[in-house]
Amino acid sequence: MNAWESSAVNRLVQVLLLLVSVNVLTGCSLLEVKLESGVEPLPKEQINMRMFSREYSYNFYTEVESSADLIANDTDDVAIKSNTLMWKIYSEQSLQRAIFQASPIAAMIDTWVFTEQMNHYFTTGAGREVFGEHQHIAIEASQRLSARFAKTAKGFNVSNFKQHQKFVEQYVAKNPISDLTFSRTSAFNDWLEFSNISEFEAITTFGSMPEVMSDMSDRMAMTTQQMPKILGWKAELYALHSDVNAADVEKALTDISQTTVKFQALMEQTPELMTQLAADMRTELSPLIEQLSQVTDDKLMQLSKERASLALIITHEREALVQMIADERAAAVQDLDALSHKTVELVFQQITETIKSVIVYFILFLITVFFAPLGLGVWLGKRMTTNKNNSVVNN
């Protein structure tokens, strides 16, 4: 299997390098703007989350692979052996999809959920009997992984740990894994809804350029490390359910290895042929390199034009925004003048009414203070004169 795995790794590296080259050549101008604008680096807590998730993945791989191999080596049942291979293949692929999300928060929440889903699947879920009498090995491994993740996750945010744990328990109960393919969807959006957090608030940056490059390096390293193993397990799984046995595969690999050795010996014995071959390759590859250089120049020119167009659009939008703000300010000033004028009129109207009321009350006060006693005196005088005249007449 060593020669086959080495060949698979070389092909994978070539494909990945080709994809990276294509992405660089055909990358959009928005990426160019972001790289030059200086994005905000990730907070320290999110960097720690990313480091923990990546470190946890290696513990996960070791725990799953050792437990699955322990079950497979202790049984002759083809169905159980097949289940151990599927456990290793699909659990590790699902974990990679969980931890390789752009946001460290999303990766950590989704990894936590997947770990609990696998634990629930083997303990009380649909997979509680997939390994027969060896089921306890898978249960113990899943419980150890679940406990290890929860213990470390608790240290990141102690105050919200119980709330996050409650969400994980509810989500796992509503979204159990149904088979060994571990088909599932990310739980991050449900977590945002559960926590009443907007996606724009939860994800404010994807990190600085060195952090993004480090993330891509981790992804490449892990993919390069895990892909040969996964391909080998898939080959074993295929061999279990086909007429091809391990001896046939080993013989074919041995033949390929012997042929490669003979070819290398032939090349060493004919250096002139190698020199001619190198010259021919140089001649044939020169047009391709020139075409690649031309395509690169075209793409760079296109990126420059798109960046200039984007800058022009931003300038026009900024001018429109300034004009809109000026118009709104002028309208607000006019509304304020009209409101002030109306307020002054109301104030003067109220003052006029108040002055009139004061004058009326003042006149009534004067009448009460000055004229009332005088009228009372005149009335009393007349009354006394009338009484006196009546007395004289009676006498």
Automatic annotation (TrEMBL):
Could you list the residue ranges that cross the membrane? Answer: 358-380
Q: What protein name applies here?
A: Chemotaxis protein
Alphabetized UniProt keyword annotations = Membrane, Transmembrane, Transmembrane helix
- Which source organism does the UniProt entry give? Shewanella japonica
